[in-house]
Amino acid sequence: MEVQKIMTGVLLLLFLSWAVTVAADVDCTTVTGFFTACSTFITHGTPDPLPGSPCCDSMMSLNMIAESGNERRFICQCFMELITTYNPNATAIATLPGFCGLSLGFILDPDTDCSSVP
């Protein structure tokens, strides 16, 4: 159990350092990469991601990148592309930040207008 906590901490630090590194150069490939840790939930709808899980840690890193309005709008557009691509799983993608206790500064919905994100 202690090893799992240490590994989670190391993983979080890696994600956070990666988030700082890529913050200046965000692209949709980077944003999509953060979803890899959430693939089981996105594909199957279970188990729900919990704060402290690798999925939520990657969402936290994504949230750190979304500091400015331009970055939030860009990340919003990437989310919308994912929702369009994985239409049957759109609800799972849209609920990820909420499950993790995060707000990305915009509502994830297929009708969201990313150009209006503050």
From TrEMBL:
Pfam family, one: Tryp_alpha_amyl
UniProt signal peptide: 1-23
Molecular function, one GO term: lipid binding
UniProt-listed SUPFAM superfamilies: Bifunctional inhibitor/lipid-transfer protein/seed storage 2S albumin
Lineage, broadest ranks: Eukaryota, Viridiplantae, Streptophyta, Embryophyta, Tracheophyta
Organism: Salix udensis
CDD domains linked to this entry: nsLTP1
Domain Bifunctional inhibitor/plant lipid transfer protein/seed storage helical: 28-114
Protein name: Bifunctional inhibitor/plant lipid transfer protein/seed storage helical domain-containing protein
Record-level GO BP terms: lipid transport
InterPro entries, per the entry: Bifun_inhib/LTP/seed_sf, Bifunc_inhib/LTP/seed_store, Plant_nsLTP
Keywords assigned by UniProt, alphabetized: Disulfide bond, Signal
Superkingdom classification of source: Eukaryota
Family: Belongs to the plant LTP family.
